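<goal> How does this chain fold?
<body> The protein record starts here
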Amino acid sequence: MSIEARIRELGNRHRSLDEAIQREMTHPSSDTLRVRELKQRKLRLKEEISSLEARP
């Protein structure tokens, strides 16, 4: 898999996590632990994307 394809895949997963976070937060009884876990996963994806984009 090329780096560009991997970045696109990670970007799609990042957007999906963002949508999941938004859905979870709209619920009146949202699970703060789940939201925190989703945000951490989203951050790890963002870091991986940045790392791949920084490659020469």
Notes: The helical segments are 3-26, 32-53. The longest helix spans residues 3-26. The chain is about 80% helix and 0% strand. Residues 7 and 50 are 9 Å apart (CA to CA).
